[in-house]
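Morning F.,

Quick status update on the modeling queue. The single chain you submitted on Monday has been processed. Sequence for confirmation:
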Amino acid sequence: MRVESEALQVLRQEIRTFLDTELDQEFRARLRRGEFPKRDDLVSWQRKLSGRGWGAPNWPREFGGAGWSDFEQLVFLEECSAAPAPAPHVFNITMLGPVLIKFGSQVQRELWLPKLLSAEVLFCQGFSEPGSGSDLASLRTAAVREGDEYVVNGQKIWTTSAHYADWIFCLVRTNPDAKKQQGISLLLIDMKSPGVTVRPIISIDGRHSLNEVFFDNVRVPAANLVGEENRGWDYARFLLGNERASIAGVARTRERLAYARELASRTTRNGGPLSDDPEFRSRSLRLEAELEALDRTQYRLLGEQSAPAERVAGASVLKVKGTELFQRTMDLLTDVAGTTGLRLPGEAGFDEDPREPLGVSHLYSRAASIYGGANEVQKNILAKHVFDTTP
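Structure tokens below.
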């Protein structure tokens, strides 16, 4: 196990105490069963974190954040995952906030950062499009400048939380004649704008978290352009490199592995606890060892002062290996559930046995290697990085 400083140990205990005191036990139980948090859950929890000064661990103090180092953020996310409790709102805090802090105007920072921090508004992310999910640079949603407005037409897909989000930060093409990675801009769009239509996507697990979003002559004030026109690709890359403290998901997977062991100890197979089965023990111990190795890799990368390209490459390493281990752990949980995990939400008596939701969670986990940048794309990033830096 890695060695932590005394200051980090004190912070870890402080976070644990806060979670034990402030996290609603019924909400905690729902998260442990694998349910999605509801909008009210996210708003309430974000406000509790903000009230404690922890609403934005990755923001500087001058913008209302905790001003924590990468290691302090990692400790916080580990404890939230272990509880389990939600991290600060991912679209508001982890993604959009840092982009506005680095690239937004002073007016935008003053307007939006307090609202993001307090969850007065919730954002969703408008990146993926039909036919260009993994090849993000090929996006076709167009924004044409007309005076003090952009007119947006196109479609986004797989948009998490769009059905209850207030706004969307959206990559759009503002120069159709430029090369793929150029000519893309980042706009903030009110989801209540005329011409915005949201249609649900019911995923393979039978639940609704994803959506299609259509833009039909949606007029967006030019003041909602983040940074410079045609620099959106740079901002999208910044998002990935900025997630180093959370992208590996080690703590999340450890929590799921601990849950698998707990359920296995209460599950009888062949006349004894499943936790005593040699195959189960072998698989769980191998996962534990690989998670430890990934954790040490994550810890080492966080401590390095690297160039932006190396940060992106490091994030790709963590993302690929982290999602692979998460999916293997969900496979293990599904095997613990057995046929009990074949039931779907809506069936009579569903969720009476804690193993019943595990099949649903397993189905959703298959997307982990796709969202946030498909693992195949991450491997291309790594290959390009090696090619570009090898003498």
